[in-house]
Amino acid sequence: MPEKIFKVNQKEYILPGNRSCQGCGLALAYRYILKALRENTIMTIPASCLTVLHGLYPITSVTVPALNCTFASTAASASGLVAGLAAQNRTEMTVVAMAGDGGTYDIGIQALSGAAERGTDFIYVCYDNEGYMNTGTQRSSATPMGALTTTTPVLTKQQNKKDMMKIMEAHDIPYLATASPSYPIDLYDKFVKAKRIKGTRYIQISAPCPPGWGFAPKDTVKIGRLAVETGMVVLYEIEDGKFRFTGRSKTLAEKGNRAPLIQYVEKQERFRKMNIEQLARLQKWVDGKWNEYLRRAEE
């Protein structure tokens, strides 16, 4: 048989059958995260969709050990695991903290900032489904402007999403990256790299959510790709302060052929009340971020 172009770990760490929704972008991403990190990985997770995926004790759908923690303490919990493993001289273990955007951008930002300032040796993963999806689709500071949530029931969200990558970069950590489950090889490679780096590493994953965003479960990969094609999500990494595009975003940057944002928003029910003015504002925001990344890539 011919050698495979992409060598991905064939072992599965998520068992058949779990409690995630149909078409869950998080579940797809998590499968490749664990394939990249392999054994000797310990997770810590707060109340979230990921907790639901893992299942209730003593039953779980995931083969790696995981510690459940409070919503605000994900990074603090990871810091404790790092300290405990160091006391036992367990240098082979990789500690991974993983929370949603609500548990990262909002509730968990204090503990995360503290750990990053100290340079604690763990990988922090934010799966960004742009809202508090596990508790009914409430607005978070990662929710994009123009989207409807259960806490913005009449007017859409009026603010652009928080730039969490810029906040984390300000902590001068050795590695940051963005990823999407719609581009699994790019995601996989970034976690393989992050595992080998010491210090605080931060990876943000765009996680399309069919019930929260309002699209058919069969379209998860398509929606994730449209996010990247339009520049709403940009795939890149920052290693030791050096920015570079990766994957599909690298190609888009070289060819300059991003799709218009309307192709992305028109396929999601959460944007059904967005007006033309808001669409223009969001397009301008996306274009501004994209141009900022282009300038950084040339430095």
Task: Describe it.
The chain has 299 residues and is of the alpha/beta class. The chain has a single domain, classed as Thiamin diphosphate (ThDP)-binding fold, Pyr/PP domains (Rossmann fold), CATH 3.40.50. Helices cover 39% and strands 13% of the residues. The chain has helices spanning 25-37, 49-54, 74-87, 102-106, 109-118, 164-169, 184-196, 210-213, 220-230, 247-255, 262-265, 276-298; strands spanning 41-45, 66-68, 94-100, 123-128, 175-179, 201-206, 236-239, 242-245. The protein has an 8-stranded mixed sheet with strand order 2-1-3-4-6-5-7-8, with helices on both faces. α1 (25-37) packs across α7 and α3 packs parallel to α5 (109-118). The mean pLDDT is 96.
Mean pLDDT: 96
Order of helical and strand elements? HEHEHEHHEHEHEHHEEHHH
Strand order of the largest sheet: 2-1-3-4-6-5-7-8
Give a count of the beta strands, DSSP E runs of length 2 or more: 8
Strand fraction equals 5-15%
Question: CATH homologous superfamily?
Answer: Thiamin diphosphate (ThDP)-binding fold, Pyr/PP domains
Structural class: alpha/beta
Topology:
Blueprint: H1 25-37, E1 41-45, H2 49-54, E2 66-68, H3 74-87, E3 94-100, H4 102-106, H5 109-118, E4 123-128, H6 164-169, E5 175-179, H7 184-196, E6 201-206, H8 210-213, H9 220-230, E7 236-239, E8 242-245, H10 247-255, H11 262-265, H12 276-298
Parallel strand pairs: 1-2, 1-3, 3-4, 4-6, 5-6
Antiparallel strand pairs: 5-7, 7-8
